[in-house]
Amino acid sequence: MASELFAICFNATRPSGLARFWSGVLGWEQVDGPDGDIAILPPGPTGFRIRFRPGREPKTAQNRAHFDLTSTSPEDQRQTVARVLELGGTHIDVGQLPEEGHVVLADPDGNEFCVIEAGNEFLAHTGVIGALACDGTQEVGYFWSRALRWPLVWDQDQETAIQSPDGGTKITWGGPPVAPKAGTNRLYFELALPAGTDRDAEAGRLVSLGATLTGEGEGGMVLMLDPDGNEFSVQRPPRRG
Questions:
Q1: Among 170, 168, 167, residue whose Cα is nearest residue 159
Q2: Model-level pTM greater than 0.85?
Q3: 20 to 30 Å CA-CA from 119: which of 33, 37, 74, 173?
Q4: Contact 77, 115 (CB under 8 A)
Q5: What is the DSSP string of 175-216?
């Protein structure tokens, strides 16, 4: 069995504050785990959690990945933006055009995200986090489709997208040009091994698909890079809740 996407992790300067922000924006429950681990949990049994880990490396460039939040109506979009601003987020300019319907914002740690206008058919029926939109190559989209065994739901003009067979948030890659990587990514994937899966065998499978093994972290976690050089980790089956 393939590893599952267990969490999207943020390297955060203030993990507890960033967790409160995103819990308030999304309406997800916040849980505090051992050793200062902080996460917010999706409301249903499917999907991924969002974890907030201490990170001291300063933000020097636009992130390679950001959330696209969905809206059910123009009023819902306005309410989401107002809630973001009330919780400490800000408007930012990343070169968006005035006629574009989405709103570009940053969380209190400077991480970019968008609130997409209502009626976006590509994000229909995905949930509040419609997509994790990534700067990446077609090759890395193919890699993650095979790594997670999620089907491709878009593959055109070197742009790719995948989605769990259970539905939910899509993960997209915009194709070239891909901006050079600036330091360690602030957002990264955390995979979890299904029960009974051999860790070394799964790491070997990911390497055969194009990943690079970089070392071992706490608790026997395997540290790796995908074909675009993005960090991710593979850990033993974690406790849910």
A1: 170
A2: yes
A3: 173
A4: yes
A5: -SSPPPP-SS-SEEEEEEPPTT--HHHHHHHHHHHT-EEEEE
Residue for token pair 């029960």: 195
Q: In 3D, which of 113, 112, 131 has the Cα closest to residue 121? A: 131
205 vs 13 pLDDT, higher one: 205
Q: Which two tokens stand for residue 172?
A: 């997209």
Query: Which pair of structure tokens corresponds to residue 136?
Result: 């990446």
Secondary structure class of 234 (helix, strand, coil): strand
Strand pairing report for 170-173 and 129-134: parallel
Q: Domain coordinates of the chain in residue numbers?
A: 4-235
* Composition of the chain by helix, strand, coil, percent to 5: 25, 30, 45
Task: Tell me 31's DSSP state.
Answer: E
pLDDT at 34 exceeding the cut of 70: no
CA distance 109 to 90: 10
Q: What does 117-176 look like in DSSP terms, one character per residue?
A: PTT-GGGTTS-SEEEEEE---HHHHHHHHHHHTPPEEEEETTEEEEE-TT---EEEE--S
DSSP tag of 36: G
Per-residue model confidence as pLDDT tens digits over 54-105 = 987 778 889 999 999 999 999 999 999 999 999 999 999 888 777 788 999 9
For 55, phi then psi, to 5°, come to -145, 125
**Strands 212-216, 222-225: pairing kind:** antiparallel
